[in-house]
Design goal:
heterodimer; A: about 325 residues; mainly beta; 4-stranded antiparallel beta sheet; globular; B: about 375 residues; mainly alpha; 3-stranded antiparallel beta sheet; 13 helices; 7 strands; about 5% strand
Chain lengths: ~325, ~375
């Protein structure tokens, strides 16, 4: 179903972090941007669709105006809003937002770090664009920071802090940015496997809370009102977002799942784990019976590699890309 | 990221260090070299183990370790580990310490990488503690210190969630990132590939608490299962074995972190590098004749002299040394080994020059040998 293409070499190897691959497709310029986190650096590659041009850039996590202070980066992800696209980078120190090509930093938000280290690590993790003008970022305390993003410029402001989770946020996802009306448009997941379903607005509304099983949910997606969640048990669960009804459960992987992605136009689901396997599934929603079908389509084994990032490169799922711990390349697969 | 890595790092790396030192000091004990230096008695070896363990598990050290803090840099870590090693009567030169550090790190990287569940990092740590306890079992005072540290570990780490353990593991993996030093023991057992990467199996028992992949279950709105189907996993997985014990004593079940050097040949505590790094003395010895094995008696080996050293003849020389040759492509830990090699070379020189020299200085001997060859 898929075959391997030429890999893209990156300057450093990928670190073992959840969802460690960002992909942004720039149609008008026939380019795709990829981001991979390595310790305190984000490796950005801009790849032309004809496969002939690659340009690289590295972003470091630092507080602005402080030359020497660096910290470990936890996540880098593209946020697509109707009016603009931003690259959000989260670290132990705070949250940085860049123009999507990484050229200019437009916003910096420092995390409250205590003077003397407490037992709990402090960091930001979990990034999602929501609706027309919000970017939400999770924090290790369980808080979710909601930023209001204007259609251009750097006048980004912290609009709200959502305090619902008690454990560190792992991942967040949304759907229906801009175009359609959705009941729920954001899901947040934490280290205890708890899922919160939100409706965005001037004040975000908590629509539902799905309790976890004391097992971390490392990656989460929202599609057609269904939450797709990947866990440290290697399982994938599909819940109806608003009601919390469990539609399906898949014993998908033999190790911790690190990344999930959905191609919204085709309903293809990608799952990747530390067991070195990437799996492609198909989700079929039947609204009449309120059921979801999960069909397995394809496996790819990345030999001896603990995968940390896997994403479709387009909304149909025609191609996907994979990163692995200690691997200095982005591996690509395309449909045959 | 995680502020709780240091205790795990020190116990595991310190444990690996003790395994390696214990093994190497035993190797030096079996040499039938007549030289008084370079031979470590059982008593000496145990003293080294006790001294290092006592320092590592001393109350002050432990209390400092348990404070929430970021992981040290490699440089700082190596300095502290060197000081630990030197808490004993043994002295390691910087080159030895560098190699020892690489060995320790790669062994720990392997354990962290292959750790079945993040929580099993504790079992790996307890395996190290258990073995250390065995190494110092003749000294109750030190055993008590080890037990005390073990109790503190149980107290601090038992309540961590799997997510927190995974964060800890991710922090360690960043620390080990891009290290691909090949260990001869790992290569031999096929746990490491020639390119330095560890082998990941897609078969075998799944970790405890994980379900064997392959099953898809679909439910109705009342939570009843309406359908189940299987999918091809691309691997051959089986149910998990029982869970290891997280108490002070017990069967840990997983074997990562136990002493992997005890059952193997002494030369296994080696790293691999393509060109032999140990250098002038070896090259000189090769020019003079075959390198003598430590355990062979001096009078038995027939020395043959390679006067016109061509590549072909050098290859023949290396072939004839046999598979056990530890010098070709491998670097051995040199706790006092400089003197060993020097003594051997002195013996070679002694045979050639037909006189035995009690003192040895490599430079002059080397010059003499070369001068002799020039004369021929």
């Amino acid at each position: 179903m898929y075959h391997k293409e030429k890999s893209i070499q990156i300057k450093n190897s990928a670190s073992s972090l959840y969802n460690n691959l960002g992909v942004l497709r720039i149609g008008p310029r026939r380019l795709t941007y990829f981001t991979v986190v390595h310790a305190n650096v984000v490796n950005m590659v801009s790849a032309s669709w004809d496969g002939l041009n690659y340009s690289h850039r590295q972003l470091q996590s630092k507080e602005p105006n402080v030359a020497t202070s660096t910290s470990l980066i936890i996540q880098a992800a593209f946020c697509v809003l109707p009016s603009r696209e931003l690259l959000v980078v989260t670290s132990q120190k705070g949250i940085q937002m860049y123009e999507s090509d990484g050229s200019i930093m437009v916003y910096w938000h420092a995390l409250d770090t205590p003077e003397t280290p407490t037992a709990q690590a402090v960091f930001a993790r979990g990034i999602s664009a929501v609706w027309d003008n919000y970017i939400c970022v999770g924090v290790s305390s369980g808080s979710i920071l909601v930023f209001d993003v204007p259609s251009k410029g750097s006048n980004i402001t912290l609009s709200e802090v959502l305090e619902e989770h008690k454990e560190a946020i792992t991942d967040m996802a949304s759907e229906c940015s801009g175009s359609q009306e959705c009941i729920a448009d954001l899901v947040s997941a934490d280290d205890g496997g708890n899922l919160c379903i939100w409706k965005s607005g001037e004040e975000f509304q908590l629509l539902n809370k799905i309790h976890g099983f004391d097992m971390s949910c490392s990656s989460v997606k929202l599609w057609k009102g269904t939450v797709v969640a990947g866990y440290g048990t290697g399982q994938i669960r599909l819940y109806e977002a608003v009601t919390g009804i469990l539609h399906a459960e898949v014993n998908a992987h033999a190790r911790w799942i690190y990344s999930l992605d959905i191609a919204p136009f085709s309903g293809l689901l990608l799952s990747a784990a530390e067991d070195s396997l990437v799996r492609v599934w198909h989700l079929n929603m039947t609204p009449e019976t309120n059921s979801v079908e999960v069909a397995h389509l394809h496996n790819e084994c990345v030999t001896d590699t603990q995968i940390c990032g896997a994403k479709f490169c387009d909304a149909d799922g025609y191609a996907f890309a994979v990163t692995g711990y200690d691997l200095s390349e982005i591996i690509r697969y395309t449909q045959t | 990221m995680s502020l709780k890595t240091l205790p795990l790092v020190f116990i595991n790396l310190g444990g690996e260090m003790l395994y390696i030192l214990d093994q190497r000091l035993q190797a030096h004990n079996t040499s039938d070299d007549n030289s008084e230096k370079g031979v470590w008695s059982d008593k000496d070896r145990k003293r080294v183990m006790n001294d290092i363990t006592a320092t590592m598990f001393s109350k002050d050290f432990v209390d400092e370790l348990l404070k929430p803090q970021q992981l040290y840099s490699h440089r700082t870590l190596k300095t502290v580990l060197t000081r630990l090693a030197h808490a004993s009567i043994m002295r390691l030169n910087p080159a030895s310490m560098d190699k020892l550090y690489e060995l320790m790190l790669m062994a720990f990287k392997y354990q962290v990488f292959l750790c079945p569940r993040p929580k099993d990092l504790l079992l790996i740590t307890y395996n190290h503690i258990d073995t250390i306890r065995e190494l110092v079992k003749d000294t109750p005072v030190v055993v008590n210190q080890v037990d005390e540290m073990h109790r503190k570990m149980i107290e601090v780490y038992s309540s961590l969630s799997e997510g927190e353990f995974q964060l800890l593991r991710q922090t360690l993996l960043i620390f080990f990132q891009d290290m691909h030093v090949r260990l001869s023991l790992f290569l031999k057992n096929k746990v490491q590939n020639p390119n330095g990467r560890f082998a990941l199996s897609t078969s075998g028992p799944v970790p405890h608490g994980i379900y064997v992949p392959g099953l898809i279950r679909v439910f109705d709105s009342k939570g009843r299962e309406v359908r189940r189907s299987q999918f091809p996993t691309g691997g051959t997985y089986s149910s998990s074995v029982k869970e290891g014990c997280f108490e002070l004593r017990g069967d840990r079940v997983i074997t990562l972190g136990v002493n992997m050097y005890t059952v193997h040949h002494p030369e296994e505590t080696q790293t691999c590098k393509a060109p032999p790094v140990k250098e002038e003395l070896n090259l000189l010895a090769r020019l003079m004749g075959s390198m003598k094995d430590e355990n062979k008696s001096k009078t038995e080996t027939g020395f043959w002299i390679n006067l016109f050293t061509t590549d072909e003849e050098e290859d023949q020389a290396s072939d004839s040394r046999g598979a056990d040759d530890s010098m070709f492509g491998l670097i051995s830990i040199q706790a006092m080994q400089d003197e060993q090699a020097a003594t051997e070379l002195a013996q070679i020189a002694g045979q050639f020059a037909e006189q035995k020299q009690p003192e040895f200085t490599s430079c002059t001997k080397g010059d003499d040998l070369l001068a002799m060859m020039d004369d021929l």
